[in-house]
Specification:
mainly beta, two-stranded antiparallel ribbon, 7 strands
Length: about 80
């Protein structure tokens, strides 16, 4: 059985992920984002980008779940 690879980007760096679900903490570790930063899922089109907390799980099999970025808390996103 072939393993699925999910292609994501964190702060414009590309990564291959082999698990369908990834937590905010795992995104920070993978992308080298400081622990005190927040991680957001970039939402295409209208709407706010989605905050991903350390314990939140993101389903990478869903469409539009591939671009993430980190920023200091309480700053403008995007």
């Amino acid at each position: 059985m072939q393993k699925v690879v999910y292609k994501i980007s964190i702060d414009k760096k590309n990564f291959d992920v082999h698990n369908q679900f990834i937590t905010g903490a795992e995104l920070k570790k993978l992308g080298g984002i400081p622990a005190d930063y927040e991680v957001f899922l970039k939402v295409n089109g209208p709407g706010e980008d989605q905050l991903i907390r350390d314990t939140d799980k993101v389903d990478l099999s869903q469409p539009g779940r591939e671009h993430f970025y980190g920023c200091k808390p309480n700053t403008n996103n995007g």
